[in-house]
Amino acid sequence: MKVFRTLSILLALVATMSLSSCNYNTIVEQEMSVEQAWAEVENQYQRRMDLIPNLVNTVKGYTTHESETLQKVVEARAKATSITIDADNLDEATLEQFQQVQGELSSALKSLLAVSEAYPDLKANENFKDLQAQLEGTENRVTTARGRYTQAVATYNTTIKKFPTNIYAGWFGFEKKPQFKAEAGANQAPEVKF
Predict the structure, then answer these.
(1) Which domain holds residue 50?
(2) Do the domain assignments include residue 194?
(3) Count of domains in the chain?
(4) Which residues have CB under 8 Å from 154's CB, separation 6+?
(5) N or C terminus: which one in the chain shows less Cβ crowding within 10 Å?
């Protein structure tokens, strides 16, 4: 009985020491960093969503013939707000869907801002200029937040793939996190015509 107890204590000690070298806490910390970085991405996209109604209403007051463009922005915003992704359920498919909807919204916003070129009074409006500057700043914040997310995911994914951590990561259910991908056609320079 004493031998069994001593053997049990030794086995527990060896198991504890081997688990302490499995980097479990490091993986957890890095997974939390990914979740925090994803929350920041969502936060910046939400900031953009909040600016859009004000921008649309400001443009609507100056443009009477651009209802189709305004409607596309409103529809793209509605579509983008209908997709929410929990960081725990983040995978390639959901991230791709999220990125596609956000890309559609970006495209609609570019069209809306291009419309302003035809309306000098709108371009001179202080509210419009302020909203346009805030939107541009938000786009920069989105880019920064996406970059931080990408870095956090790269660190996490590298950690769970290294030996022997990959063994422990598999045991504890840590899975690879998805990365943002470039939008279709992003690898080609835009055509400029004069």
Answers:
(1) 24-172
(2) no
(3) 1
(4) 179
(5) C
Would you state the structure tokens that stand for residue 125, as one six-digit string?
A: 């409006």
Q: 124: how many CB neighbours lie within 10 A of its CB?
A: 10
Euclidean distance between the first and the last CA atom of the chain, given in angstroms as a whole number: 91
In a domain, 140, yes or no: yes
Burial of 94 (0-12, 13-18, 19+ CB in 10 A): middle
115, pLDDT greater than 90: no
Question: Model confidence over 119-178: pLDDT tens digits?
Answer: 777 777 787 788 888 888 888 999 999 999 999 999 999 999 988 888 888 888 999 999
pLDDT for 185: 56
* Each residue's pLDDT tens digit, 50-98: 888 888 887 777 776 667 777 788 888 888 888 878 777 788 888 888 8
CA distance 151 to 34: 9
Judge whether 189 lies within some domain.
Answer: no
Enumerate residues 6+ apart whose C-beta is below 8 A from 121: 62
CATH number at residue 134: 1.20.1440.20
Q: Quick check: is 163 in a domain? A: yes
Q: How far is CA 70 from the centre of its chain?
A: 25
Dihedral (C-alpha) 160, 161, 165, 169: value to the nearest 10 degrees?
50
Q: What is the pTM of this model?
A: 0.71
